[in-house]
Amino acid sequence: MAKKNYSQADIRQMAKDENVRFLRLMFTDLFGIIKNVEVPISQLDKLLDNKLMFDGSSIDGFVRIEESDMYLYPDLSTWMVFPWGSEHGKVARIICEVYSNDRKPFVGDPRNNLIRVLQEMKDAGFTDFNIGPEPEFFLLKLDENGKPTTNLNDKGSYFDLAPVDLGENCRRDIVLELENMGFDVEASHHEVAPGQHEIDFKYADALTAADNIQTFKLVVKTVARKYNLHATFMPKPMDGINGSGMHLNMSLFNKEGNAFYDEKGDLQLSQNAYWFLGGLLKHARSYTAVCNPIVNSYKRLVPGYEAPVYVAWSGSNRSPLIRVPSSKGLSTRFEVRSVDPAANPYLAIASVLEAGLDGIRNKIEPEDSVDRNIYRMNIQERNEEHITDLPSTLHNALKEFQNDDVMCKALGDHIFQSFLEAKKLEWASYRQEVTQWERDQYLEMF
Prior knowledge:
six-stranded mixed beta sheet; eleven-stranded mixed beta sheet; alpha+beta; 22% strand; 35% helix
């Protein structure tokens, strides 16, 4: 979905032409949860004049109650009228940047943070960082009270069609709604696990891609409800089957074109590409805390279910963390396969970009590519190839994260500290929980 250079006059005219009655002002909290303030269309002028305020103290990771007054500055390029109607008129959304009471960009706003890191990228001589996401999700049945169950909506598998894939009609409607909203959907199919689906949309610049991921999640959940289903982006809602990932395909551009491409280079990759890759590998264990941010994320990152477990790269197999797809030229890119859809896209993209830029700044050379199936290698073989493991728990990921100055630079001190504190509390809460698995295993034995 390409950016549109709308003026204030354009916005006013489109609101009138589309009979928009309500405005949904969207932004994202520390944990990647979409927040919105809905106001009537009568507030449009106030919004366009950057005068709409909200209480920031009620948003996770933002500010304390004594400094709560904050402004919403609309990004006019994100204007979009939702295709589903309302008996009271249409609803339009605008994604906003959060500003403090002193009219400065709020450093705790994940979107502002990504804008800051992208400026740093431009200062380093690059023009764009493109992201192509591959988000996966499960469709689950609802109970009689409208609450999600763990009952999958089908028993299909990879690329199955109806009648085995009972979610096909729902998925088709999701695609139609996305296209109505301007998304360029490239593929839609059933994934490996029962009840699991994937919809891929065209790459975009990093900020637009993060906005698109958030909008995508909203559309998927909204359409699923119409089918009496619940769409979840939880990485591993059930054991024994594959979890949901959100692979990020990424490419860096400069004035000459794709900065990762060199027709004469090894694998047709440029020196900048190899240094960027070196940074991605060096900081992989640290940015895992951001790209796999919840306790449940690490139930996906285990051998046997296609998710990556080892820090390595390859141009020819899918078992390492980072893959170099075969397409070259303008399509030269890296695919980071560990990221899951629970990640805050603004923070995840900022963290991998900063890791790559650190590789370029410090000319970090990556280890040699690994073209064997890593899952079949023993520990000694992996050690000989300098292959390390991704963190096995959120706790271990946080230990790596808190000691990495590059991650602090990627998120800024405010978000870095708020994220670290919140995630340590999450881990502490999880540690204190006695699970049904433990009761099943130990209650009678001991």
